[in-house]
Write a structure and sequence with these properties.
The chain is α/β, with parallel strands linked by helices. The protein has 9 helices and 12 strands. It binds adenosine-5'-triphosphate and magnesium ion.
Amino acid sequence: MVMVPIERCPTGIPGFDKITQGGFVRNSDNILTGGPGFGKTTFLLQFLWNGATKFNENGLYCSFEPDIVETLKDAMSYGWDFTKLNEQDRVKFLKFSPRTSIEDLKNELTRLISRYSIQRVCLDPVSVLALNINDEGKIREMVFELSSLMKRLNVTSILADESLESQNLTGSDVTNLNKTDIMKFLADSVTNLYESGLSGVGDRALRISKMRRTNHARTLIGMRITSKGIEIFPPEEKMQAMAMPSQMPQQQSQKPQQPASKPVQQASMPQTQTTQLRAISPSVPAQQQTQTSPQQLQR
Ligand SMILES: Nc1ncnc2c1ncn2[C@@H]1O[C@H](COP(=O)(O)OP(=O)(O)OP(=O)(O)O)[C@@H](O)[C@H]1O
Ligand SMILES: [Mg+2]
């Protein structure tokens, strides 16, 4: 039997690529779930920052949050100054209203992905899209359309899902599915974040409940958030078991993992930061942020 190597999209998040045999599967659609403050946005920003600075892959961050400038400030606090990357068209930021239609979203994604040769896309939080839809069939259709589009455009996507269900460690409460849980069945992978150190290592935890076409750690893995972002602590003995050739072929990213072109800088939050952020997000008055059409933050 000929084993076709699975191409990878490494996250560069310390520990995560180890527990997934090299990162997300390239061109897959992935769900990241967790409650408020569990680290979803941090994970997405770190994925995009590392993509551009370590793996030379352009990214797109689509926000449904009320204020994307706040998100950029969050990134700065980890030392990820996206200003320059945005100016160089390596990571673009797009603000959507929760009322944006799926058609508008698809059109704008298609335009930007091809215009900027984007390989990584993050939607944060995608659950907002389902807010105004009550028909489960329509939600399924929307998720399916989005996911098919991302695959056609050859991008690796992560969709953040606001969910408290990840608190249910057994995942057994299938009768109480929330509106966006359908996404988890359709997605190629589901990673759940937890706010407490349930694994005994770190003060937070992460669990991958599914990842198609690859082996991966399945237990709760320790995690923490520091001023450098997210860190995962893979248990070494489990990694050795996973690396056994009889279980799965070793699959590596076809792209060599380059060292960061620049070391990640510790960021303070200087007064000038607002000016820098305005450089990529010039004037997005609050009233415009609720409009139905997407708004790209341009320099
Ligand atoms: N420098 C830091 N050191 C340690 N923890 C930090 C640091 N900066 C942020 N955090 C933690 O990260 C959390 C924010 O994470 P993040 O915004 O990524 O979560 P989220 O899941 O996107 O939340 P929400 O659902 O509210 O959008 C903060 O609540 C804080 O606990
Ligand atoms: Mg967030």
